[in-house]
Write a structure and sequence with these properties.
single chain; 314 residues; alpha/beta; Spore Coat Polysaccharide Biosynthesis Protein SpsA, Chain A; 9-stranded mixed sheet; two-stranded antiparallel ribbon; 11 helices
């Protein structure tokens, strides 16, 4: 049975700047890449936190604004002239806009940062230090906190059929501390220790440029969701390690952009998961496991849409 996905259709471009990797002294240590859409006040807070707690090495900040209507790009130009702004004429979505930022950046390390994230003292330096100390690490992520100080569950395993079906069926919520049923969202883990992980949220994720040179940029077939999961999956397949670093901490407001278009975000999230399965698991997993996962996610998504429609009607 043929796979309903052509790997040739993957819109993953290589990062064609090898000279930066060969001559590290000619470029800054870090490029901070921020994609923004109508979150001017959060973006201001984010850039202020970087200016307040900058890394102790040379760095640059690149902001890609996806045609915001709230004056975000103008605010950056007026209040943060040291940042470079790429102002798009339309919303290019997350994957494409991040690729724009990365392609114009020059740092040996790249910190992907959402505009609704506020770094704390030492956050950036700790991530840089960790990658320096661990040359096999292709990426690392900090502990993310809600504004009230609660820890965000920002790390998951890859959505293998067993882990995904336990989550979609609701079984994971019945025994959340189970290492089998709660595996997808790592509900049993306390987020207090350094840990090699599959996929931390890209809300704050530092990546080694040399790793991107090997695996390529974001796949733009995942415009908003699961592009970070796809990237982490490719990093792990290329033998790069990914780590969670709890003593680097940042505040994350969660969903500042996606909350502005919840219904579209839900649809794109569902499409992203299905696309991830078609790209990476079709023809790799046994057919019964693959189709059980695909059918299970379709049923779960349909029930969620029905529930959302019912709540709106009442």
């Amino acid at each position: 049975m043929p796979c309903p996905y052509s790997r040739a259709a993957s819109r993953t471009r290589p990062l064609n700047v090898p000279e930066l990797d060969e001559n590290p002294d000619a470029s800054p240590a870090l490029s901070i890449c921020i994609v923004n859409w109508n979150t001017r006040d959060y973006l201001r807070e984010c850039l202020t936190s970087i200016a307040q707690y900058p890394p102790h090495r040379a760095y640059e900040t690149v902001v890609v604004d996806n045609a915001s209507a709230d004056g975000s790009a103008e605010m950056v130009g007026a209040q943060f002239p040291q940042a470079r702004v790429i102002a798009n004429d339309r919303n290019e979505q997350y994957a494409r806009a991040n690729n724009q930022a990365i392609e114009t950046s020059a740092g040996q390390m790249i910190l992907l940062l959402n505009p609704d994230v506020r770094v704390l003292e030492g956050t950036i330096d700790r991530l840089l230090e960790f990658l320096d100390e661990n040359p096999a690490a292709g990426a690392c992520a900090p502990k993310l906190l809600h504004p009230d100080g609660r820890v965000q569950r920002s790390v998951r395993t890859f959505p293998t059929p067993g882990a995904l079906l336990a989550d979609l069926s609701g079984l994971a919520r019945t025994i959340p501390r189970s290492r089998i049923l709660g595996r997808y969202r790592l509900m049993y883990w306390d987020y207090d220790s350094v840990r090699e992980v599959d996929q931390p949220m890209a809300s704050a994720l530092m990546i080694r440029r040399r790793a991107l040179l090997q695996v390529g940029l974001f796949d733009e077939q995942f415009p908003l969701f699961f592009n970070d999961v796809d990237l982490c999956y490719r990093l792990r397949k290329a033998a790069w390690r990914i780590y969670f670093v709890p003593d680097a901490r940042a505040i994350h407001h969660v969903g500042a952009s996606t909350s502005q278009a919840r219904r579209q975000a839900l649809r794109l999230s569902q499409e992203g998961l299905a696309r991830f399965y078609r790209k990476h698991y079709c023809g790799v997993l046994p057919w019964p496991a693959y189709w059980a996962a695909m059918i299970g996610m379709r049923v779960a998504f349909a029930l969620r849409r029905a529930g959302a429609a019912l709540s709106r009607a009442t």
